[in-house]
Amino acid sequence: METLLSVGIDLGTSTTQLVFSKLKVENMAGNYAVPKMVITDKQVCYRSRIHFTPLLDETRIDFEKVRKIVEEEYKQAGVSKEQIDTGAVIITGETARKENAREVLKALSGFAGDFVVATAGPDLESVISGKGAGADLYSKVHRTTVVNLDVGGGTSNLAVFQNGETVDTGCMDIGGRLIKVEPESGIITYIAPKIREIIKKEGFLLEVGKSVCPEDLDALLALLVSALEQSVYRKGQSPYYELLTTHKGISFTGEISCISFSGGVADAVYHPEKFPDPFCFGDIGVLLGRAIRASSLGSP
After folding, report:
1. Which of 166, 231, 238, 292 has its CA at 20 to 30 Å from residue 37's CA atom?
2. How many CA atoms lie within 13 A of 7 on its CB side?
3. Can you tell me the distance from the alpha carbon of 262 to that of 150, in angstroms, rounded to the nearest whole number?
4. How far apart are CA 63 and CA 65, in angstroms?
5. How far, in Å, are 44, 68, 117 from residue 86 at the CA level?
6. Rounded to whole angstroms, how far apart are CA atoms 271 and 153?
7. DSSP per residue over 226-248, as a string?
């Protein structure tokens, strides 16, 4: 048995976080057989605070600030790069589509040991988030079908689990930070390109620099949620389903027994009372969570 020190570095649309873990690895194969290394135990040693992912502009990640975040968290954890045996750098959501995403991943790989996995695929992200939420285990124990929606800052990743197995995945460009709003003034500071397209087609009075109240966003949120409903139930005719689909939706047509939520917006789905200020995070995440809770997804 061998113990390895591992680090996971996650750069998401909204936030960046590091986790250090000790992994016990054992060769489960017999003598003279091809080694079969299995993680038999894991212990989280340090979990960093959650940082907003720094950006230079709408198309580029601010690598210097990301590097400083990583270096500072290594210091807080009392770990040096040389001590790391293995790890993963994962870049997800809208951040994965930034112009310099590959360069950032390559530069950060030095912080994650010799066996680095650097990936940004939405399918893998859907599976990881669903398993992290325990949706696969729930479906296995209860012998049922579960859809997990991981609703983050830029995307909603969907994963379908049937009796513990992943049977389908999908991803939608729907998230809490596709519109950014100053908490105190209510002034819009950013609108994502696809959302701008919807606003223009619908004639909504939403634009950067304009002050809004929650009610001004109701019609837009309804359109976003209807696309999510179609993605889960494969029913309805959302006019923006194709536009908001990242690369593919789920095609599973069987009966769905349960829906679970994870990601930054999930807290507002499950506990909206915790966020009396709808713009407390400087975006529409709380309002999106409320809208999902009030839809067929929140009360299937």
Report:
1. 166
2. 26
3. 4
4. 5
5. 14, 21, 9
6. 18
7. HHHHHHHHS-S--TTHHHHBSS-
What is the CB neighbour count within 10 angstroms for residue 215? 8
Give the pLDDT confidence of 94-132 residue by residue, as tens digits: 777 777 877 887 777 777 666 555 655 678 888 989 998
| Whether pTM exceeds 0.85 | no
Distance between CA atoms of residues 245 and 251, nearest Å: 13
Phi, psi of 96 (to 5 degrees): -65, -15
Per residue in 159-217, pLDDT tens? 999 999 999 999 999 999 999 999 999 999 999 999 999 999 999 999 999 999 999 99
Would you state the pLDDT for residue 32? 64
Q: Sign of torsion, CA 186 192 195 197?
A: positive
**Angular region, 203: left φ>0, alpha ψ -120 to 50, beta rest:** left
Reported as a single tens digit per residue, the pLDDT across 217-268 is 999 999 999 999 999 998 778 999 999 999 888 999 888 999 999 998 999 9
